[in-house]
Design goal:
By secondary structure, this protein is mainly alpha-helical. It is built from 13 helices and no strands.
């Protein structure tokens, strides 16, 4: 028993010494943020190498690495780290939304639709989840559902030109061109340089 107790204490000490100090953590993250700002994503990721080694299941480091791998275009690693972060906080909307960004970058619209639904079950009016849900529906020619989603969000963001555009474009492509033009005319009042509205108004 004494031997087992001694080994346990030694193991505990090694685990304690393996953990980074507050200062080391601050420096690692500060360096990572600095390189991200400069768009040097490989170095930004490398700056967290010791952090991920010492905290392989930690939420913050896995979420951050998932974000950085997404920015660098390494989608496989991005998904791996983001999924690991979700084991710590399964309802993390920020991690779930970042997974959506990966799927959108891959043009995997069916996955975006499913992922967005998952987020909306947690946060019904989440802006990004509803946006990507509407986009995914639109890209799959599911115009009725895209219109329904846009209407839902415009009930709480009535002058939001992003959802107004989705609503108008979906109506236009569905065949309700007169109503779509009215909406696009309103968009131009709110945002006179809006390229989507100008495109449809000039057709």
């Amino acid at each position: 028993m004494k031997k087992i107790g001694c080994l346990f204490i030694i193991g505990l000490l090694f685990s304690l010494y393996a953990e980074m100090t507050q200062k080391e953590l601050e420096e690692a993250y500060s360096s990572s943020f600095k390189y991200e700002t400069a768009q040097r994503y490989d170095k930004s990721i490398s700056a967290l190498s010791k952090v991920i080694k010492d905290y392989p299941t930690g939420y913050t480091v896995n979420y951050r690495l998932g974000w950085l791998y997404y920015l660098s275009g390494n989608y496989a690693n991005a998904l791996k780290n983001l999924e690991t972060s979700l084991t710590a906080y399964p309802y993390s909307v920020e991690a779930l939304n970042t997974i959506n960004l990966v799927y959108a970058a891959q043009l995997a619209w069916e996955k975006v639709e499913v992922q967005s639904n998952k987020i909306m079950k947690i946060d019904y009016y989440n802006y990004y989840a509803n946006y990507w849900y509407a986009v995914a529906l639109f890209r799959q020619n599911k115009y009725d559902q895209a219109i329904k989603t846009a209407d839902k969000m415009l009930a709480v963001f009535p002058s939001n030109v992003v959802f107004l555009n989705i609503l108008a474009e979906s109506k236009f492509l569905k065949g309700d061109k007169e109503e779509a033009i009215k909406i696009f005319s309103g968009v131009i009042i709110l945002d006179k340089m809006n390229e989507t509205a100008k495109y449809y108004l000039n057709r």
